[in-house]
Design brief:
This protein has one domain. It is 10% helix and 56% strand. The protein has one helix and ten strands, in the order αββββββββββ. β2 and β3 form a beta hairpin. The longest helix has 16 residues. The N and C termini lie far apart (75 Å). About 6% of the residues have low confidence.
């Protein structure tokens, strides 16, 4: 009689302790070197890179994303150690990845937000953004080139290739 009770107790102990859910089962991995946002209600994602604007100028950086015929660029300026702010942003589309068919600039009359966090060595950048753009070049009569567009709930992570 003791053996069946012992086996039952052992079975219950194993069943309740071995089937615990892992704490990190649903945590998605952080994707590096990527920009993602909701562009006019549609999910948008592109590989990213960040570089100095030109050799010798280390206080201004360009964060770029490019996917197919779509390109976005953010100009970041260092105000102090580990403190960068958004100076400007541009979105443009191309045909054949070389002929620009539409250009959008940051609509500064809207409530734009952009955050920047850097690593101690200032090579790794990440943050969030919600930006509004207005068209400055392109066919506004075509639905493919609206007069304005937005990138909301955006996040980015990029590693600077040179410093």
């Amino acid at each position: 009689m003791k053996t069946p009770a012992f086996i039952l107790l052992l079975f219950l102990a194993l069943a309740t302790t071995s089937c615990q859910k892992h704490r990190n089962c649903c945590v998605l991995p952080v994707v590096t070197n990527q920009i993602s946002a909701t562009k006019d209600g549609t999910s948008w994602r592109a590989p990213s890179q960040i570089d100095v604007i030109k050799p010798g100028v280390t206080d201004t950086l360009i964060l770029r994303g490019h996917i197919g015929e779509e390109n976005i660029a953010f100009t970041l300026k260092r105000n102090s150690a580990d403190n960068y702010t958004l100076v400007d942003a541009t979105y443009f589309t191309t045909v054949g990845q070389d002929a620009v068919v539409s250009t959008f600039v940051l609509d500064k009359s809207k409530d734009n937000t952009f955050t920047v966090t850097t690593s101690a060595d200032e090579k790794n950048f990440q943050g969030s953004f919600s930006l509004y753009f207005k068209q400055t070049y392109g066919n506004t009569l075509s639905p493919a080139y609206p007069a304005a567009l937005s990138f909301k709930d955006g996040i980015y992570k990029a590693t600077q290739s040179s410093k």
